[in-house]
Amino acid sequence: MSQHRVYRMKFSSVYPLYVQKAERKGRTKDEVDLIIRWLTGYSQAGLEAQIERQDDLETFFAEAPAFNPDGALIKGVVCGVRVEEVEDTLLRKIRYLDKLIDELAKGKALDKILRS
């Protein structure tokens, strides 16, 4: 598997960008956390521990307790690429999270974002 540069980015450096993006559009940190927990299976304490440990995105997703099988329902375009067509599993998971945060920032209802 080729190593994408994004794999080495620290989750602790990406996380505040997700929160800032959401807050600029009137959404909250709690909503960002809920989305991340829904997708990855982390508890709030587990999520906070990951942020403190400053692991990279590869480790963050590898240690995710239970990646949500409904993640496969996430469709759309992020950075000009359809997330459902990304072949690399890890990169697809990263793009799923990007897409969910985009949907939050665009004002989509949480029940729609969480595919309920």
UniProtKB/TrEMBL annotation:
InterPro entries: SP1917_dom_sf (IPR023204), UCP033199 (IPR014580). Gene3D superfamilies: uncharacterized protein sp1917 domain. It comes from the Bacteria. It holds the Pfam family DUF2200. This is DUF2200 domain-containing protein. It comes from Luteimonas notoginsengisoli.
